[in-house]
Amino acid sequence: MGQKVIFGDVFLITLDGERYGIGQLAGDWKGELYVVIFDKVVSSNASSADIDDEPLLFAAVSLDANLHHGDWRIIGNRASNVEALPQPWFKVNVEGRTFVEARDRSVTRPAAEAEAASLRLRTVVAPVRLENAIKAISGICEWQPRFEELRADYAISSADLLQRG
């Protein structure tokens, strides 16, 4: 039986035998998870409090394989901070028209021209890509250009764009 994950869970991503990346489940829409990885390396005895006031490094919509199978060990829950985390927005094309869509699909509306030009199409990445990206940042493996799309900058900028609009 797999590890059950819930909104706000904080987890560790093994980098090597002594260092771990630390992340959080910041959203779940029918099994499509919004995962954030903090810009912090911790030890195996880290706690969920280790994410407090830490900047985001990566943010992506992903699936639960590494969490469900226990590869990313859950160390606690910190749902109280999730509201402060940026939630990305995407553009979707429907019948030749471009729409803005919230990460959790709670809002869909026609996109303004500036929004359509700035927003990305929704993508879902495999958890292993997030794991490899944090390992690359930590010097364990080589950086791949495809890791750039995982940077938290997009979640921050798209959230800012839609708050202004």
Question: Top keywords for this entry?
Answer:
single chain, about 160 residues, alpha+beta, five-stranded antiparallel sheet, three-stranded antiparallel sheet, 4 helices
Q: What does this molecule look like?
A:
The chain has a five-stranded antiparallel β-sheet with strand order 4-3-2-1-5. It is globular and about 50 Å long. It has one domain (9-164). With 165 residues, it is an alpha+beta fold. The chain has four helices and eight strands. The model has no long low-confidence stretch (mean pLDDT 93). The chain has helices spanning 65-68, 113-118, 127-137, 153-164, and strands spanning 9-14, 20-29, 32-42, 56-62, 73-77, 89-94, 97-102, 108-110. β1 and β2 (20-29) form a beta hairpin.
Q: Helices and strands, in N-to-C order?
A: EEEEHEEEEHHH
For the secondary structure, the number of strands is 8
Number of folding domains? 1
Radius of gyration (Å): 16 Å
Number of helices: 4
* Proportion in helices: 10-25%
Strand content: 25-35%
Structural class: alpha+beta
Strand order of the largest sheet: 4-3-2-1-5
What is the residue-averaged pLDDT?
A: 93
Tell me, briefly, the overall form: globular
Largest sheet: 5 strands, antiparallel
Give the uncertain stretches in residue-range form: none
Distance between the termini: 45 Å
